[in-house]
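Q: How would the structure tokens look for this protein?
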Amino acid sequence: MVGNGGPHRRWRRFCLGVQSIDNCSFEQMKQRFSDARSGDYRELLKELRNPASGNLSSRTTRLRQRFQDIVSIDFFAVRFVNRSSMH
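A: Here is the predicted structure in token form.
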């Protein structure tokens, strides 16, 4: 997103179509994204399985936000989303 920096910032969203990156096929790129998100989901699950310490409410909020952050960039719906769903 690009802003104009003024006091009333206006943001514009750009959509970019890419045919290839680093000479990777679509399937290779899809696998790279899936591998990255799988790692993110694994880390989240690991943290969820650890006993809670401190403020449970803030921990829950933080973990729920992290889950939403991962989902928002999970372009190929990695299989871990069903195992870690926090709904």
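The two ends are 29 Å apart (CA to CA).

The mean pLDDT is 77.

Upvote if useful.
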